Amino acid sequence: xxxxxxxxxxxxxxxxxxTLAERxxxxxxxxxxxxxxxxxxxxxxxxxxLHFFDLSTVSSFWIVSPVSEIGTIKQIAASTGIGSYVDxxxxxxxxxxxxxxxxxxxxxxxxxxxxQLIKLGVALYVRANHYLTLDSxxxxxxxxxxxxxxxxxKPLLNLETLSDYQRLYTPDFASSEVTRKRSRMLTASSxxxxxxxxxxxxRFCGETPVLLSADAVTxxxxxxxxxxxxxxxxxxxxxxxxxxxxxxxxxxxxxxxxVETHQLASCDEVLSLTDSVWQCNCMYRTKRTYAPATFFxxxxxxxxxxxxxxxxxxxxxxxxxSEYGSIKEYYELLNVALRAEVEDLQRSGD
Length: 350
Known about the structure:
The chain has helices at 38-52, 70-80, 91-94, 111-121, 146-149, 162-168, 171-192, 214-227, 231-238, 244-254, 258-261, 295-302, 327-348, and strands spanning 12-17, 58-65, 87-90, 130-133, 138-140, 156-161, 203-205, 210-213, 263-265, 307-309. The chain is an alpha/beta fold.
């Protein structure tokens, strides 16, 4: 086919919920931990995206934050060089049109649950067929873009299975992880009132980053609003035990639209679960090391997933080697490694 007739490369939206100072709101606050490294994490994520992600394939990049933090987040984005690609919007803007019985009666929600609600609610606004969800504790590992995440015009959906957990974790923790994920899927199915097909394999949606279909999420939210008079937002605020990705996978499986919506991928094709700082070291079958000097080059050599997580809620003593004085020092060394990797790529012409 001549170039002039070739289909345009796909574009995606990116959605990143961020708060720099988590408010301690009863049990809704994310893990009840100090968020004082949020700026350092955000700078690393944005820098890695600037250097490795093809931003020409991004139709919009929204950072969603408390209104009081918009100015500071804009400054952080500008300091990394990615500011011109990013729009910072207030959390409340995502929910202004959500069908609820009364905005004044809406409970206060923060932390992890708020992040999940944002990742669902934003589907009503993005002007792209698909959007990539991010968190501030994610790092982009090597060169990629929308075309990488949507091979053959069908977006990847990273899935996890019992065999993945058995490969990575101790037997006891692998078992407990499956039990936790099954519980979330059962809760999601109950909320949706959709049963998974009887022959559906025992699988779970991977964690952020996940590339979501805006149309599928919009249909999911409409489905919930048709079921519950209080609307999708209030129903999810008032219900515990679900996650955004358990709802998403349950909805696609329950409506028989999973395979037509996504190309199913492993736990290491979008996020690299294997290379991520995902659990405490004692949960893994083998000793874990996360050497900053080889963090990016190792991923490029192995061509593992395009992203890794350094879980923000994990206390340093359960995963960080004693050779590093603090998590802040570890992040600083990751920044050094990122700059070195970018320089190596520039020298090689990649």
